[in-house]
Design a protein that fits this description.
The structure is a single chain. By secondary structure, the protein is mainly β. The chain folds into 2 domains: 67-128; 148-553, Integrin alpha, N-terminal (Methylamine Dehydrogenase, Chain H, 7 Propeller), CATH 2.130.10. 14% of the residues lie in helices and 35% in strands. The protein has 5 helices and 29 strands. The chain has helices at residues 5-10, 14-30, 48-78, 95-107, 119-129, and strands at 148-155, 173-181, 186-193, 198-202, 210-216, 220-226, 235-240, 252-259, 265-274, 277-283, 292-297, 305-311, 321-327, 332-334, 337-338, 347-352, 358-366, 369-377, 385-391, 400-405, 419-424, 432-438, 442-448, 457-462, 484-493, 496-504, 512-515, 524-528, 549-554. The strands form 6 sheets. It has an 8-stranded mixed beta sheet, with no helix packed on it. Strands 14, 15, 16, 17 and 18 form a 5-stranded antiparallel beta sheet that branches. The N and C termini lie far apart (73 Å). Mean pLDDT is 85; it is low at 1-48, 57-62, 157-163 and 534-545.
């Protein structure tokens, strides 16, 4: 029986160091260096200088071999679960927390405990090679040639509606959609509030600047409009995390928000008893005329899946789906659908975060089978992948990927590789990566032709609810600094982008959407606010509450 990994951590490496020393001695023997067996070198009597030098040389060789063995052990243990984490990816003060978490993962894995490297020298290994800190760069970009006017949307609170839903204790907008809605199929914005579980709709045709209540789940992460039962009325699929904090609890759900014959909205469960669900999309993957589902089961630290739900429904009063597991990695965030290879069958991509940090294409082979191809591999377990969008960035007729990686919820630290990126489809896998602009805390991305010049532009937003911590002092580095919180990237010429900072200092945007909100023919922006700051209404009946959504009206037209 091997030593428990927890014991290795608590022992500060002393037991395992003894083992490493024995291994080093064995390697020295193999290298032909004497360790006491066989003929000894002749040393002149009383020649202490030569004796000391020989001992020092021998000690340096032993130390070098020990270091090589330690690094070999570290690489073997780390790459058992994910790509090797380069020490330079986070400041040295954070490596102890990172390693204690990593050793916890190993304890729950099948990795041989005898091969786990000792904790104390492993920590020294990473700290010695890590930077003290990363210096925050000022916002990069030029003044915006477009002017935007902003206004907030708030929850309508009155005595007739307060009994229908709970007042938000704080703003937690996790997702915004813009699509036809209601019996008249007029464009509307559907909004999910993650902390309270509420789903709202804003319908511009009403002329009101407030959000109306649609329904309630537990903790919605994403909403996608569709027409699941194909009755001609728009409905929505809701990805319900089930728990607000990261957890491996099986409380995730997929729900169907749909109107009954009277027009009242009902919530029907399509999938339950799974890990935290971050995304769900509908498409006819098996070409049988109905709509199947693909589900991003984010899960927690040790569980998660990509699920294909084959539609077996005969009566939508009791919908039925057969569940197929396509991938068993945790951390699945988005699963956008498209025909990726032009063969007429619908495929999808999966953004898989946590320690995996990959984008994987699932190519539809028919008969419920999918072939996986890696679109992008960050090769960095702490990359912070947060969101993707499929779009034709360069206008060449195929779909590229926009990626934003700025998740700081593990460690509230600045990382210079948090960016907005374009992954170019060159006709083969993986796609070619282009770094477009740095964006600390970048969490959401959307695209459209903002300046109406015939090419695609990009918008990205930042989410830094806890700020950015100085690794040495613990001070919030955002205090007194104006880091970009909303940017748009203008495609000034084919494949060339110029960054414009629209906002600094309001790091609450977990979601952003391009849409022609005012119907004047140009694209506006919608940003949601996820503040984690308590909101205490002064009295029931006061309206409106502070804005949950900001509309950025483009003044181009």
């Amino acid at each position: 029986m091997g030593l428990a990994i927890r014991e290795m951590i608590d022992s500060e490496g002393s037991l395992m160091l003894t083992k490493t020393g024995v291994q080093a001695t064995m390697i020295l023997v193999a290298l032909g260096l004497s360790t006491g067996c066989g003929p000894s070198p002749v040393v002149p009597p009383h020649d202490t200088a030569n004796t000391t030098t020989a001992a020092q040389d021998f000690g340096e060789v032993v130390a070098a071999v020990d270091k090589q063995l330690l690094e070999s052990q570290i690489r073997e243990a780390c790459t058992y679960c994910h790509a090797y984490p380069e020490p330079q990816t986070i400041p040295k003060e954070f490596w102890e927390k990172e390693l204690r978490q990593a050793y916890g993962f190993l304890e729950h894995s099948d990795f041989d405990p005898q091969k786990v490297p000792p904790f104390a020298p492993t920590l020294r290994f990473f700290r010695d090679r890590a930077p003290d800190r990363f210096e925050i760069e000022p916002p990069q970009g030029t003044p915006s040639p477009l002017v935007f006017q902003t206004r907030d949307l708030a929850v309508e609170v009155d005595r007739e509606t307060t009994g229908q839903f709970a007042l938000p204790v704080y703003q937690g907008v996790s997702n915004i959609q813009w699509s036809p809605w209601g019996a008249e199929k007029q464009n509307a914005s559907l909004i999910t509030d993650m902390p309270t579980g509420q789903i709202f709709v804003w319908e511009p045709r009403t002329g009101r600047n407030t959000l109306s209540f649609l329904g309630k789940v537990t903790h919605p992460g994403h909403l996608e409009t569709t027409d699941l039962d194909q009755d001609g009325r728009p409905d929505a699929l809701v990805a319900d995390l089930g728990t607000l904090q990261t957890s491996d609890a099986k409380k995730g759900r997929v729900l169907w928000l749909h109107a009954d014959e009277s027009g009242a909205y009902q919530m029907t469960s399509l999938l339950a008893g799974v890990g935290r669900v971050a995304d769900v999309r509908a498409a006819d993957f098996d070409s049988d005329g109905d709509r199947d589902l693909v589900v991003a089961e984010f899960g927690g630290q040790f569980s998660g899946h990509v699920l294909y739900l084959e539609n077996r429904t005969t009566d939508y009063r009791e919908p039925h789906f057969e569940v197929h597991t396509l991938d068993d990695r945790a951390g699945v965030i988005h699963v956008p659908v498209a025909d990726l290879n032009g063969d007429g069958r619908l495929d999808f991509m999966a953004l898989i975060s946590q320690e995996h940090e990959k984008i994987v294409a699932f190519l539809n082979q028919g008969d419920g089978k999918f072939r996986k191809e890696v679109v992008f591999d960050a090769n960095n377990a702490g990359y912070g992948s947060a969101g993707i969008e499929l779009t034709d960035v360069d206008g060449d007729g195929d779909l590229d990927v926009l990626l934003v990686n700025g998740d700081t919820l593990d460690f509230q630290i600045y990382r210079p590789y948090h960016q907005v990126q374009w992954l170019e489809n060159k006709g083969s896998f993986p796609f070619q990566r282009h770094a477009l602009t740095p964006l600390p805390g970048g969490l959401a991305v959307s695209s459209g032709d903002l300046d109406a010049d015939g090419d695609l532009d990009i918008v990205a937003s930042a989410f830094l609810p806890f700020g950015i911590t100085d690794p040495q002092t613990g001070v919030n580095l955002l205090d007194g600094k104006r880091v970009a919180s909303l940017v748009w990237l203008e495609q000034t010429s084919p494949r060339q982008f110029e960054t414009h900072v629209l906002e600094t200092g309001r790091y609450s945007h977990a979601t952003v959407k391009c849409a022609d909100v005012d119907g004047d023919g140009d694209l506006d922006l919608l940003t949601g606010h996820f503040t984690l700051e308590g909101i205490t209404p002064r009295a029931i009946g006061l309206s409106p509450l502070p804005g949950m959504i900001t509309i950025w009206e483009n003044q181009l037209r």
